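Quick start: what a row looks like.
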Amino acid sequence: MVLPGLFLCLLPHPPGYKQCYSFTMEPTINQDSPAWMFFVHASFAISCIAMIIGIWWLPSVLWIKGFLTMGFFGAVQSSFTLSKALRDQHESRKIHHRISEAKTAHILKEYEINP
């Protein structure tokens, strides 16, 4: 399906008109909305509080509650570590891809035949 607005960008525009699409090699920065960030923080806080309350009200001896609490905090810490590692791996792939594209563009420009 072709969007109708796509063809409007291909028509000639008056001077000073801002183009609809930009075909540059500039990296885009995706920022999350404040509503999404609130949802993420609230769901994390609610799940942690619910887990702590569940462990506290568990009809068991204290050492079992302590063991479950340590396991819970270990799982939270490892999830933070995993998300950071995945983010860093994704960022390094983006940088590596941009560097290889720049090298390729430089080589092509260097060996370009000018008539």
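That is the whole record. The CA atoms of residues 92 and 98 lie 10 Å apart. Confidence is low (pLDDT under 50) at residues 1-8.
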